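Each record in this resource describes a single protein on a pair of labelled lines. An example record follows, reproduced without changes.
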Amino acid sequence: LNPDGVVYLVSGRALADGRGVVGVDGNPLTMFPPGMPAVVGVGHHLGLSGRTTVTLLNAAMAAAIVLLAATLLGRHVRASPVSGVALVGIACATPLIGVSTAVLSEPAFIVAGLVQVVALESALRARPGRRRRVAWLFVSLAACWAASSLRYVGLSMAGAGAVVLLVTTLRSTPEDHDGTSRRAPLLRALASALLYGIVAVAPLALWFLRNLAADGTLMADRSPAAIGPGEVVTRAVATLGWWLAPTLQHLAPAAAVGLGALVVAIGCSRLGRRARPGPLVEGRPEWSLVPLVACVTVFVGYQLAASMTVAIDEIDSRLLLPAFVPLVVLAAIGVDRVLARSERTRLAVAVGCCLAAAWITLNLAADQRTFAQGGRGYEASSWQESSVADLLRALPEGSAVTSNDVYAVLAVAPWLSTTDAKAELACSSPIWAWWDRPDGVQPEGTVLAVAETSIGEVEIVSPSPGC
């Protein structure tokens, strides 16, 4: 459980109580779209707690990720060992398991992204103007709507879909247009791309209008980016390294591994171009790679540009995770095409697949061992089972608590009324929850409980009268 998850749980509870989509401070929520609070709110109406609702949702999304990945691998990869290892790598990937066991929107967002890719590939397989093509395009639009209700970066999916239609319409042949004698004109390509983009962003545009009315911003008030483009790109490359070697602790080694992986991928791509295999089914056209490549490129580009512009979470595995499955599929396609180039490469690929499977298993075991020893973030047992957490849970609903980490407080007692006090603690609240008090600074009140947790040392203080 992290701050984002706490916001989802608190906002969903407020929505179920009829107070609307509000944040932890009771004001209208503009930092996030309304998708996850709405899911939590529906769960409350069904008699489920917020965490149970998200657990069930993410379990279903984890299964859907594997099924959609299998669909893409089945469309593009010939060699079953390559496809099998890639699928096992996705199913057992520690980054995906990490977000699937947390109160986060990433699993559902990843599913929406994969549905868009599958739908766009299917739409391109159908002839223009046919009902089947229109139906698949509508499915891809629905995926965009779902994604943008979960995360603002869902806007990138609208751009990706528009790029796919623009590129494929310009590249279409006369046979694709009922026998017309010339390529589709540029105007037709631009019109289809523009129409797709407008329809895809329409629901989120309504939410932006609501945000403007609520606090005068589109996506909450965000500070300018504190890091430069160089560091953003370095962290993005390092993220690729951390996916391959989760045990790496520092940025530089991870960036080196990620850079090496990019060099190998480019080399495989160049080799694969020289020996492109035919369609997996004779007599049927090959599935287009344009949706897969466009969705990854536009998403990563949008995320990097956003990180260079405004202060959001640092680029890491969680922010770039929606690109993980498409990148694994693209890697499997590259290996598959290199394999098709020469019979002598089969032994090397077989050994590589065995090593990859062993590496995946070791990383998964290490990650689950760490999780079993104490949990992560605000779900860590050192916090959830502490005397301070028990004291907070014992407070009546609506009790006022001032804290310099309101997310941690609400993670154990979401029914409390919290006040965020980053700089100094106000005397207006009967209870303070104070994390990591600086040495030499004494609280003006009585310390009721102290706990050393994985997220820091916390004290519960009852302030002195007239402090």
Observations:
- Residues 186-215 form the longest helix (30 residues).
- The longest strand covers residues 445-453.
- The CA atoms of residues 405 and 439 lie 18 Å apart.
- Strands lie at 400-403, 417-420, 431-435, 445-453, 456-463.
